[in-house]
Specification:
mainly alpha, 80% helix, 0% strand
Length: 241
């Protein structure tokens, strides 16, 4: 675990010492601010809880995109900079390396997410919302971001080019998002299967409404574990190649 934390600290420091992390954070905050002002505060009289739900709705989208952008260089950068061979030959296990990169991505994603906290707090100026609702919404966003980060790390392990990794990760995420559409046009038992596989519709909706469902946490946790294990398998295969 100490080795994973060292890798996470190294990767997080590298990102924060470059413009990449700051550009991603600034872009997400800018887009979230525009959307919050346009759709939440600027769309006429609404109940406070409805405004908060809209905030979590569009923030979920920017969080998914940010997770892919943050992780697209996780392993692709190692290939480009010639340090992948050092990772392959190091005594540290592939799982530890993957875990370290995942923790680094989640650290940056958590920083970015928490910087948006002022937006829901603005609702308190003229409205009334539950702090529990805010906490649950952010839990849902980080859970969703965790799954997307794992997908992004998996994609980065497959490609030597960060842009290709981001595109492939985006294809996987979009495919999982569209599962809700497949559930609408399918019959049982595929209807229930596609509905459960949908990345956003069934699992995130309760979070943005302020309700914690175990099924959602299990789904996002399982998705994260599956893609991190697949990434570890790829890295182990390369080290033996």
């Amino acid at each position: 675990m100490n080795a994973a934390l060292l890798i996470a600290r190294r990767d997080l420091a590298d990102t924060l010492h470059s413009f990449t992390g700051y550009v991603i954070i600034a872009a997400v905050l800018f887009i979230d601010g525009i959307l919050f002002n346009a759709f939440a505060l600027g769309s006429g009289a609404q109940y406070s809880h409805a405004v908060l739900q809209q905030f979590f709705h569009f923030c979920a989208g920017t969080t998914m995109i940010a997770a892919l952008l943050i992780t697209m260089r996780s392993f692709a950068a190692e290939h480009q900079e010639g340090t992948q061979l050092l990772l392959d030959q190091s005594p540290i296990s592939s799982r530890t390396v993957v875990l370290g990169k995942y923790l680094a991505a989640m650290g940056l994603l958590a920083i970015m997410t928490l910087l948006t906290l002022y937006m829901p707090l603005l609702i308190l100026v003229n409205g009334k919302i539950s702090l529990g609702h805010i906490a649950v919404g952010y839990l849902g966003m980080l859970s969703l971001g965790s799954a997307c980060a794992a997908i992004g790390i998996f994609s980065s392990a497959l490609f030597r080019n960060a842009v290709s990794a981001a595109i492939f990760g985006g294809v996987i995420v979009v495919g999982l998002l569209l599962c809700w559409l497949l559930s609408e046009v399918s019959d049982a038992p595929f209807k229930e299967m596609f509905a459960y596989m949908a990345l956003f519709d069934k699992h995130f909706t309760p979070f943005k409404a302020g309700r914690v469902l175990t099924n959602g946490l299990v789904f996002y946790g399982s998705l994260t574990a599956i893609f991190l294990m697949l990434t570890s398998t790829i890295q182990e295969w390369r080290s033996w190649k």
